Amino acid sequence: MFISEVLSINADEEYIDKKGAFDISKCNLIAYANGKYFSMGKQVGKFGYSVQKSNKQK
Fold first, then answer.
1. What is the pLDDT along the chain (58 residues), one digit of tens a residue?
2. What is the 3-state secondary structure (H, E, C) of 6-54?
3. What CA–CA distance (Å, rounded) separates 23 from 41?
4. Domain assignment of residue 36, yes or no
């Protein structure tokens, strides 16, 4: 187990959205598996999808 404290975060301005938040979709990420590289693009889901609240209006 590791416990740490984040002291600094640096990101190039091109990865920051209009609201000032980091936008990971602008990063052109890649993944490595079994000796091959794969591009990552389209979001296919999100954490908490199965328990999210409905946006239905009453």
1. 999 999 998 989 999 999 999 998 888 888 888 898 888 877 777 777 677 777 766 5
2. CCCCCCCHHHECCCCCECHHHCCCEEEECCEEEECCCCCCCCCHHHCCC
3. 13
4. yes
Rounded to whole angstroms, the Cα distance separating 44 from 54 reads 19
User: Based on the structure, what is the number of domains in the chain?
Assistant: 1
* Structure tokens belonging to residue 13: 């301005």
Q: What is the pLDDT of residue 57?
A: 63
Q: How is residue 52 written in tokens?
A: 């999210």
